[in-house]
Amino acid sequence: MRLSTSRLLAGMAVVLFAGLPHTAAADEWTSCVKLSDSLAIAGCTRAIESQQYTGRSLARMHTRRGDAYRAQGDFDRAMVEFNDAMRIDPTYSSAYNNRGNAWYHKGDHDRAIADYNEAIQRNAKYALAYANRAAAWAGKGDFDRAIADFDTAIQIDPKDADAWYGRGLAWNKKDDNDRAIADYTQSLQLDPKSARTYVNRGTAWGEKGDLDRAIADFGQAIRLDPKLALAYYNRGMALEMKHRLQAALADFRIHAQLAPSDPSGQSALKRVSAELKVK
């Protein structure tokens, strides 16, 4: 039985704003850029309508408001904001990167890649744009190009845990579990509280046949996130392969509660229950 893995690059991060300018109306700027997505739209709208900002500062505000709309699933409004940011400052690479993220989440990987290309053309050291373009290449099934872009992202910013994690997922898709484990391990050194990384490293250990290490990683994922259904399912699978059926059944029951519509979990629950009844 093959352990399942979580969807490739599901948690890819989007750009964070750095080097905030020290301009007038600091409270309005803060309410736009630093607040959560749910509050940023109103804050950015107030700042933009104050007409105290121009150029790069104004482009950043439109980009931030676009990100807030994207986080709400309103991609059309997000696109308008990113387009406005590019019109105001055509050199602002973050606007292209973030519009690429919107295209990515809409499932249009080709347009996403085109925007990431534009972002990189304007800022050759933009590590996050390389990582995001890697995610888009992976979405198209081109894992070699994905790995090449993750390589560049890591060279530019070796402390980006998501880039190491993403490259690990790409190696996993190429069935290179050793390289996947190495990248997941590096990612965990940078972000030791990432439950998803433990799940995927556990999956790689399981595919190598090291069920004890797999179980340990799934257990750590569960400690970090007790509602992570996939961790229970994968641990249950590993326990079943070790013929620890009672423990496997307990995990499959929790998985069924957390993900009742998952047919794989229901099938596993019925299978192990039947095995225990026979015994």
Features:
279 residues; mainly alpha; 15 helices
Structure described in brief:
The protein is mainly alpha-helical and 279 residues long. 73% of the residues lie in helices and 0% in strands. Helix 4 runs antiparallel to helix 5 and helix 13 runs antiparallel to helix 14 (245-258).
Structural features, described:
By secondary structure, this protein is mainly α. Helix content is 73%, strand content 0%. The protein is built from 15 helices and no strands. The protein has helices spanning 26-33, 37-49, 55-71, 75-88, 93-105, 109-122, 127-139, 143-156, 161-173, 177-190, 195-207, 211-224, 229-241, 245-258, 263-278. Helix 1 runs antiparallel to helix 2 (37-49) and helix 2 (37-49) packs antiparallel against helix 3.
Write the layout of secondary structure elements.
Elements (H helix, E strand, L loop, with lengths): L25 H8 L3 H13 L5 H17 L3 H14 L4 H13 L3 H14 L4 H13 L3 H14 L4 H13 L3 H14 L4 H13 L3 H14 L4 H13 L3 H14 L4 H16 L1
Helix pairs in contact: 1-2, 2-3, 3-4, 3-5, 4-5, 5-6, 5-7, 6-7, 7-8, 7-9, 8-9, 9-10, 10-11, 11-12, 11-13, 12-13, 13-14, 14-15
